[in-house]
Amino acid sequence: MIAESIQRAVHDECSRPGAALGLDFYNRHLVPVALYSAELAAKLGADPEVTAISAWLHDVSAVLDISTLPRHAELSADHAVQMLRERSVAPHRIELISTCIRSHSTPLPIDSHPIEAVILSNADAMAQIAEPVFWTHFAFGIRRLSFEDGRRWLASLVESKYSALIEPARAIVATHCARACAIFSAYPPRVPDAG
User: Fold this and answer.
1) Do 56 and 6 meet the contact criterion of CB atoms below 8 Å apart?
2) Which of 62, 63, 109, 176 has its CA 20 to 30 A from that of 134?
3) 51 is a domain residue
4) Is residue 189 part of a domain?
5) Mean pLDDT, consecutive 10-residue segments, the chain of 195 residues?
């Protein structure tokens, strides 16, 4: 099956020595995106192979070259088209997967795009909410933000992504969101007066 072949190829890229987005990214972001995509696809009646392939390839340009991050949605879609043509995937499926990847960076509402694109965009946000450990590493280790700037960026990431999710996605990650919001809330907490 094509999805498994793509998954292996992405895993191999993440396993490369010196990969900026290595196996931690694979395990703490790509795997959750694939799992959430499958869960939403089953709930919403979407094509499970399209959502799986889209999930594995949505960040492929950043996996290959971290400097592409500002344009990774567009570049990942272009790379996906090339990979899928090499595997003789039908052109209409390639187009749908490309659409999913190009539009994945912000959670899309139902009926705004093909359902598979809605699913990928929501699954990507769900993984960001549910896996705050990786995104803490991303903020401080990769982006090199100060403590307060990183905390604010992480709090904003979680809050903005959660507020944009479709209802089925919110229900799945509500507990994760509450936990992440508590972690990234303003510090230090207010201490009640002793008197």
Assistant:
1) yes
2) 109
3) yes
4) no
5) 94 90 92 98 97 97 88 94 96 98 94 96 96 88 90 92 96 93 72 55
CATH number of the structural domain spanning residue 143: 1.10.3210.10
> Quick one: tokens of 188?
């230090």
8, 81, 108, 165 from 132: Cα distances, Å: 25, 30, 21, 17
In a domain, 20, yes or no: yes
3-state secondary structure of 190: coil
Angle formed by the axes of helices 147-164 and 115-130, nearest 10°: 140
Asked whether 140 and 150 are in contact (CB, 8 A), the reply is yes
Q: Which of 153, 96, 154 is nearest to 129 (CA)?
A: 154
Q: How many residues does the chain have?
A: 195
Q: Nearest to residue 124, comparing CAs of 35, 194, 33, 57?
A: 33
Kindly state whether residue 191 falls inside one of the protein's structural domains. no
180: exposed, middle or buried (Cβ count in 10 Å: 0-12, 13-18, 19+): buried
